Every structure is written in structure tokens, then in C-alpha cells.
Amino acid sequence: MAMIRAGLQRFASVFGNGQGGILSKFITNLAPVENKSLPETTKDVIATCNKLAKEQASRNFAIVHLLGKQWRVTDGDLLVVEGYWPPNIGDEIRLDKVLLAGTKDFSLIGRPLVQSGLVDVTATIISKGLSHTRTHFKKKRRKQFMRVNFQRAQQTILRINSVEIGDKINEAPNNAF
Amino acid sequence: MSASNLFMKPGFVRAPLQNGVGRYVCQLQRVVLKFCKTHGASRGLRDFIEQDLVEFAKGNPGVVVYLKPRRHRGPVVVAEYLNGERIWMNMHNKTHSEITKWIETLRTQQGDVSATRLRKYQYTAYPSIQGPWSPFTFREPELNTAELPDVKFGENNRLPTSATEQLRLLFERQRLGDGQEKTAE
Q1: Which spans of this chain does the record mark as coiled coil (chain A) (predicted)?
Q2: Other Cβ atoms within 10 Å of A171 Cβ, number
Q3: Which residues of A touch B121 (CB under 8 A)?
Q4: Which backbone phi and psi does A158 adopt, to 5 degrees?
Q5: Same domain flag for A19 and A69
Q6: Is A51 on the interface with B (CB under 8 A)?
Q7: Tens digits of residue pLDDT in B45-79
Q8: Domain for residue A1, yes or no?
């Protein structure tokens, strides 16, 4: 009796939809990519994020790419950029390369950049001066070798004025670039 | 003056009076150009005064410019800033273009920037917005009430299965299959 039952189970498992069954070749859980629509929960999440962005429920932050470095900025931050950089004092600039933007409750992660027009990071140049004098001291012992070089790098101080996230997440991007 | 110098004071990035939040205010308030009318060391500064000074004063209405001719004394530029700092700079034998560049630097910087070594290159009043990460962030709340040590939370499932373990599993599965086939016959 036990032998017959086990045999029947085996037979059923061959035709079943479970993993490895014959019918599993014909039935698939994956819908074609073209017909895939957003599930309801995803729509809800995007709508909630849009609402939060519109209400400005909490402070925003963004990670911007500036002269080869990545900075996490929020309103009122001060940044010091080293090296030659053309903007002059009093200039107001927009930092366009936003890698990530977020609030307390959600984050928008760029691949690699967040789409243009969604996040608006503006800054003012406050100061352009020179760093303190750095000494490059090189010496090799017992080799009659010594060099002392002095250098000062240009330093530009930036004030971040605003980090704003528009309430148009999941809308088609306007290709500014 | 290097970073290891006793007299090089370290500091953090600051801007006087929240500069740039509402609007930007040029921090340079006053420039005094001291020079000699006859000596060759003042030649560059005299050239600057003759050619560029009027333009400079017109372009920067917020900056007071004083000229101070002194007989047989070296050329000097003194800049005074809104935060009370004062920079004294010797212009002995400097050429016209050098002096133009130095005065531009004095105009654009906020106070005596180079007197301090910056310890951080960013200042923020809000270091974390989504809260600092801790090992319990994004963990199951079940963990709060669990009695530790617990088999479920204590198990080490982070390492990949070793080759020995994989072989053992394969063997056991095979043995299970053999038993089933025997019963099926």
C-alpha cells in the first residue's frame, strides 16, 4: 500500500507545476518585459514619495559630484574645493551631477546620475583664496640629498543654498544633456 | 609653515555672519597701498596704481582704497576684512602682473584664510538626515523580544557553503532518492 502511494506521489510530482515538473516548461511566472506594468504597491510608494517631496516634510540631502570628488550636501553646508576652478566670488551656480538625493523617508539613487530636472542643488561662491603653505620635505640619509618645496593650493569655498527635490518622481525626464 | 608647525593653528571651515545664505557680501573692506614715488622697488605698485587702480575702485564700490606715498620706504599692501582680520603684504620688487594677481586674491578671499590649516574640507550643521546607521538598523523587530542566545538569530548563514558541505548534501539527496526508488518498485 505504502509502495503504491509513493509511486502515485512521484507520478503526480512529474506532472505538477512545482520545480522540475514537465508542465513547468509551459507555465511561467514572468510576464514579458514590454507588457509589465507597475504594481499597485509601487505606484503607492511613488505617490507617497511625491507627496513627501511636495510637502517638504523633512530636510533634503544630495550627493553631488564636484571636481572628481563626491560631497554629501544639504542646505547651508560649506564646501572647500581645492585647485584651479573658474567660478568667482558671488557667482551662483547649480550643481547638476547629482548621484543620489534623499529625505528622511526615501532616497533616489541615480544610475549613475539622478535624471536632470528632478533635483535642484544651488550654491554660491563665498571665497577664493589660498591654502596655508604646505612644506614638501624630502631627505635621503647618507646620500647628500635634501629638497624643501613650498606650495599653496587655490581654495574655493562654496555655500550650498538649496537642495530641492521636485514632486515629479517617475515622470519622463527632459533630456537637458 | 607646515601642518606640524606649533604656530600653525588648525581650524574648521567657517564663513563670517552666515555669508552667502541670503546674499553674498564681499568680505574685503579696506585696502591701503603704501609706496615710494622714487624707489625702484615700488615700480610695480606704481604701475598698478597708474593703470588698474581706478578700474578696481569702480568695480568694487564696497571696498575703500587708500593710497599712502612714503618717501624711501618699501611698497606694502594692507587689506582689512569684515571679520576684523588684517593682512600685511610686502610688494618689494614685485611686477605689475604679480601685484594684480595678489590684489585679486586679497579681494576674493574671506579674511586671513591661509593662517589656519583646515582640518575638514566640509562643514555641515546636519551630519545625518536619515539617522546614523547602527547594527540594528533595518533588522527584524522580532529580535527585540527574542531570548538570546537564539538558534534563529545566532546561526551563521553569511558564509557560502563549503565544498565538503556541498558534497555531503549531494550524497544525502542521492541516498534519499535511492530509498524512494526502492519503495516505488
Answers
A1: none
A2: 13
A3: 79-80, 82
A4: -115, 140
A5: no
A6: no
A7: 999 999 999 999 999 999 999 999 999 999 999 99
A8: yes
